[in-house]
Structures are given as structure tokens and as C-alpha cells.
Amino acid sequence: MIAVPFAPCGRRPAPFLDVFLMAVGAGMPLSCTAQLDTGADRTIVPQTVADQLRLAEAAPIVFKSVDGSLGTLPTYRLALRVTSFRPIFLTVAASRHEPHVLLGRDFSNKYHITQDGRARVLQVAEYPPT
User: Fold this and answer.
1) What is the CATH number of the domain that holds 105?
2) pLDDT on residue 130
3) CB distance 74 to 55 below 8 Å
4) Model pTM greater than 0.70?
5) E strand or H helix at 115, and its extent?
6) What are phi and psi of 35, to 5 degrees?
7) Looking at the 3D structure of the chain, how many domains does it have?
């Protein structure tokens, strides 16, 4: 289990954690700081990250943004690792307009996560292997 203090983010601290992203089966990992976004269905990476990792594009998907507008984003398969945890494999979307990695529910459903807003701490634990 890891415990990470919330990071400053505008007027309110927010849950960020360091992750490693890599192409499935090859390549060097890229270290990134990612924000946990419990309102997002899927993890989103900046398009520059997908390009830097030379990820192979999968089928595009239709997304509904926070303002309700619809758009299409490319998707990519990647491996993601939190500290010394086992890597997980996700199909992520990429956006040219997103400056940060946003960890969606596809990420958070793979871990036991506790956010303590008052203490401003994010706790992440692996589930036992199945």
C-alpha cells in the first residue's frame, strides 16, 4: 500500500500519483504524474505521451466531455505501473487538449483506493493476484 499526500492544484489540493507508462511488450517506461479522476470512465493521456511511447492506435471511441459535447478520440493499449506494483494493462484514450494523465475508473477499479479529503491523502493498495 502507498499513501500519497494530495498535490497543490489551483485553489484546492487534488489526488495525484506518480506512474510509469509503457507500450505493451516493448519500450522504456515513461514516468508521469497522473491525477485520479473518479468522474472519468476511462484513463486519458495527452496525445504527446502516446506519440512519445510510439503506441499503436486502436479503434477510436466517441466521448462525451464535461460540457456535454460529443467528440471522437483515438485509443491505445498500454501498460501502467504504480511504484513497485504489478503492471496493469489498459486501453486509454488520448487527447491533444489534455495536459495531464487522468486516471479514470478503468484504473481505479483495479485497486483498493481511499481518498481522505480532510487529511488530504490518497491511499492505493493492490488486490491479491487472482
Assistant:
1) 2.40.70.10
2) 76
3) no
4) yes
5) strand 111-116
6) -100, 130
7) 1
